[in-house]
Design a protein that fits this description.
- Two copies of one chain form a homodimer.
- In chain A, strand 6, helix 9 and strand 7 form a beta-alpha-beta unit.
- Chain A is built from twelve helices and twelve strands.
- Chain A is of the alpha/beta class and 344 residues long.
- Strand 2 of chain A pairs antiparallel with strand 2 of chain B.
- Chain A binds a DNA duplex (16 and 16 nucleotides) through helix 2 and helix 4.
Chain lengths: 344, 344
DNA sequence: TTGTAGGCGTTATCAG
DNA sequence: CTGATAACGCCTACAA
């Protein structure tokens, strides 16, 4: 924070206005003066104070990113996508994670006032999404993975329900009729959408769906393990299971093995998310893939559009496709032991 | 950026100074006035413009984080650690990734002037570390995973060489004498340190180390696969291989299988990093674990210390321990097929 | 206990 | 082409 524009001006024998003009190419300056100023600036290692600049131009060149967490498989990929798009625009990223309750979220949001030009928000909790309302009212923002139909906000989501439907349809095509599901964390909007897709596909096929085949999970490996155990204890146990994410599916795989049964012969298992580990478990896990980084990239894209458009910008809604990745665990292909070395 | 302190003052019938005093608890204000101001501020949803605040106090309450990438297994964990420590202090994180060459780095750094109180830097490239010099000269900074002995900067690193030594000693204890290594990306300082540890341990044990047993990798799965193939083609092939990271080790596992050989019976394999997948491959991969998030956490800790100390702060140097995790791939325990469900 | 006014570092407007 | 100078929004002596 030491060398200021004033020092550069004094050293170069000009006014601060001229220095500013040269460094921002914002006005006519003689070649000679210009060169001299550049030299001095370089020698003094001058770099403008961005806080001051933000104050006068009321443009920070920074995007605020609010996520439930800023690390881990999923969020990390989202950030990657955001970063890619954002850096192309020369923007910075102010990130913030771990905001469980709305109050903490609001605090984080208000702490970003004056330091960001726009916001990228994501809350997995459906309730929080509703209370969003006018949280971010003075800068444009885009909701990532918002399930609820937001009226006033742009949303970029993934096709959770569509992915779940694809899984169930695939299992039906393989001849299964007793298809169970292990649901995600309660209150989580992704989980709710995936459950909806599961139900819709069964209903469309006129397959009955007894309540006992919907067992509650929590997105963790242990939760999936426990849930699968409950399913296997059923007198008329399911022949196929759709876990709402891969971690639970992997836990389920373990439970099946411990019960002395074989996947997919005795019970088929399919997950959701297609995390890297999915390819490596035994048997390789069938799953649903969504381009997570694209979620972030597109959200950033929409935000920049909003930034450009200004006031008269109409909310957009994008839904990213979900693709079924068939591997050994659902019985459609022969199970292959060990880590597949095949390219992704 | 709409409602300012001035509007709150007008609405509450006081001066801006009084509002500031109340909101920052920075001076005596009557209970009655205080309450009224708080009410107005809440009603107007006033939040101070942080850019302006940063300007007057020359404190941004923000830490700049410069990493080679801001996503992926490793960096994600680093950020997690940083975030944990940082949020406790009420600080924000301005992150920036993908800075390959020093020039781009310098640009990113100067763009952070006036918006951060301190910096957390990490460049895997050894050369870049050297040219660091006085890049960040006006705010305190801490180097993450800096291998070079930095004179003027605080460093938080992990014990790469120690981990590599532990691997080799373990393999020696198991009776191996032809121990190969697949090295990491050239120019990468972690890779260099791991290679150094490998050599040191062999030298200390007076085991000869022919050049053919050091084959170049690049930290990718394909690179490991290729390198292992080269090793298996040797007339006198190694009985054990230390890969400088887990991705390469997993690639190596595939190459061994394709050659019709068995891990660990024909050749033992050990990796480095202990990524989550390590537990799931067949056989489970022995590896070296370092608390990556601790790397970030500690770096943030040291930075806050420097911030507090001000000018008279002496550079620190921390080295995080590396722990050998023995699983099936090195032959010390029986290989267990399939995904282990055991807790991490 | 409260108000006035100067300053933080830049940009932008308006005269020269 | 160049130089004063008024914002930008807030904090903080200094006065009252």
């Amino acid at each position: 924070m030491r060398v200021t524009i004033r020092q550069v001006a004094r050293e170069a024998g000009v006014s601060v206005a001229t220095v500013s003009r040269v460094l921002n190419a914002s006005g006519p300056v003689s070649a000679e003066t210009s060169r001299r100023i550049r030299d001095v600036a370089a020698r003094l290692r001058y770099a403008p104070n961005e806080a001051a600049r933000a104050l006068t131009r009321s443009r920070t060149h920074t995007i605020g990113v609010l996520l439930p967490d800023i690390y881990g498989e999923f969020f990390s990929e989202v950030i990657r996508g955001i970063d890619q798009r954002t850096r192309r625009e020369g923007y910075h990223l102010l990130v913030s994670g771990s905001h469980d309750d709305p109050a903490e979220m609001e605090a984080a949001l208000s702490a970003m006032r004056g330091r960001v030009d726009g916001l990228l928000l994501m809350f997995p909790d459906a309730a929080a999404q509703a209370s969003l309302g006018d949280l971010a009212h003075d800068v444009p923002f885009v909701l990532i993975n918002g399930a609820a139909r937001q009226e006033r906000a742009s949303v970029v989501a993934m096709d959770n329900a569509g992915g779940a439907r694809a899984v169930v349809r695939h299992l039906l095509a393989l001849g299964h009729t007793r298809i169970a599901t292990i649901t995600g964390a309660p209150g989580n909007s992704d989980a709710a959408e995936r459950l909806r897709g599961y139900r819709e596909a069964l209903r469309a096929a006129r397959v009955e769906r007894p309540a006992e085949l919907e067992v509650a999970g929590d997105f963790t490996e242990d939760g999936g393990h426990l849930a699968m155990r409950r399913l296997l204890e059923l007198s008329d146990r399911p022949t196929a299971v759709f876990a709402a994410n891969d971690s639970m599916a992997i836990g389920a795989l373990g439970a099946v093995r411990e019960a002395g049964l074989v996947v997919p012969d005795d019970v088929a298992v399919v997950g959701f998310d297609d995390i890297p580990i999915a390819r490596y478990v035994t048997p390789p896990l069938s799953s649903i893939r969504v381009a997570i980084d694209e979620l972030g990239r597109l959200a950033a894209e929409r935000l920049f559009e909003a930034l450009e458009a200004g006031e008269d910008h109409r909310p957009t809604r994008d839904v990213l496709p979900a693709q079924l990745i068939v591997r050994g665990s659902c019985g459609a292909t022969l199970p292959r032991a060990g880590p597949a070395h095949a390219p992704p």
